[in-house]
């Protein structure tokens, strides 16, 4: 019989080399993955928070209050003597309270007290922007309304848009409020870019926060939103406990939700506020 020991040895060597090469490839891929995840974690705040130049100054309804760390943030207060409810608004990424003033004026004209704030590093607010700071900033305004203005929590409706929706949801699961309006929200910060979950760690996990809501919630999202596709909003709606409502805006993208059908937009908000008040 022929001696097969040489052939067997050759085969074993090839398999060994193949296994070693596969391990090296897998290790390299793992190292790349870890670097990507760590990099995303470290730099995600820089991508999520991009403050524009300030569009306003102190006065005309704008003042500043201190955060828990002593830094001061800017507040826009538009009050209505006949208001029975207060809207606390958290704006999106590349805008400040000067940019949303007209929107706040429309809110006030419907019979609400309205308060908006700038995250640290935005407008004339002190400090640097970031996820943790933003959550502390909205808590500072909430505390101001409840403790200094004496406003009962059940009269407060949180309204967060885009990035601000994550900030509003974070507060709503930790403090009592009357209701929450979640507009153009994402599932998590990373999934705006990746679409699918690729990391065990993430920032601004709306997908987790929304399950813990104890207040009524209204979801608003543009059906043609290409920045944060509507499936983000619909998934959050599915996960939220009752009572919950949704307004999916036909033809609206990310930045024109209000203007796609202004009358219907405000009708949905008025109806939600009436439900909350009951």
Descriptive keywords:
globular; single chain; eight-stranded mixed sheet; 278 residues; 43% helix; alpha/beta; Rossmann fold
What does it look like?
With 278 residues, the protein is an alpha/beta fold. It has one domain: Rossmann fold (3-Layer(aba) Sandwich), CATH 3.40.50. Helices cover 43% and strands 16% of the residues. It has nine helices and eight strands. An eight-stranded mixed beta sheet has the order 1-2-4-3-5-6-7-8, sandwiched between helices. The longest helix is centred in the first third of the chain and has 44 residues. The N and C termini lie far apart (94 Å). 37% of the residues are buried. About 5% of the residues have low confidence.
The CATH class designation is Alpha Beta
CATH topology name, in short, is: Rossmann fold
Q: What's the order of the H and E elements? A: HEEEHEHEHEHHEHEHH
Structural class: alpha/beta
Radius of gyration: 24 Å
What is the 3D shape?
A: globular
Q: In total, how many domains does the architecture comprise? A: 1
Give start-end ranges of low-pLDDT stretches.
29-43
CATH superfamily: Alpha/Beta hydrolase fold, catalytic domain
The strand order across the widest sheet is 1-2-4-3-5-6-7-8
């Amino acid at each position: 019989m022929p001696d097969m020991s040489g052939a067997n040895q050759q085969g074993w060597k090839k398999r060994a080399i193949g296994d070693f090469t596969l391990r090296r490839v897998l290790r390299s891929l793992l190292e790349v993955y870890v670097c990507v995840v760590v990099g995303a974690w470290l730099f995600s705040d820089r991508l999520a928070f991009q403050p524009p130049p300030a569009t306003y100054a102190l006065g005309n309804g704008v003042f500043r209050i201190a955060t828990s760390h002593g830094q001061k943030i800017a507040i826009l207060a538009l009050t209505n003597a006949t208001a029975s409810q207060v809207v606390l608004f958290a704006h999106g990424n590349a805008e400040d309270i000067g940019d949303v003033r007209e929107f706040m004026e429309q809110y006030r004209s419907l019979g609400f007290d309205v308060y908006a704030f700038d995250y640290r590093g935005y407008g004339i607010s002190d400090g640097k922007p970031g996820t943790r700071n933003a959550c502390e900033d909205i808590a500072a305004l909430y505390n101001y309304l409840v403790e200094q203005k004496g406003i009962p929590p059940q009269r407060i409706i949180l309204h967060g848009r885009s990035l601000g929706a994550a900030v509003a949801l974070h507060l709503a699961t930790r403090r009592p409020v009357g209701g929450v309006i979640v507009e153009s929200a994402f599932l998590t910060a990373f999934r705006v870019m990746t679409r699918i979950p690729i990391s065990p760690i993430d920032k601004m996990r709306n997908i987790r926060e929304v399950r813990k809501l104890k207040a009524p919630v209204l979801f608003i999202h543009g059906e043609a939103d290409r920045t944060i596709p509507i499936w983000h909003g619909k998934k959050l709606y599915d996960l939220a406990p009752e009572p919950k409502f949704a307004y999916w805006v036909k033809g609206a993208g990310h930045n024109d939700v209000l203007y796609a059908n202004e009358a219907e937009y405000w009708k949905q908000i008025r109806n939600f506020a009436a439900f909350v008040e009951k």
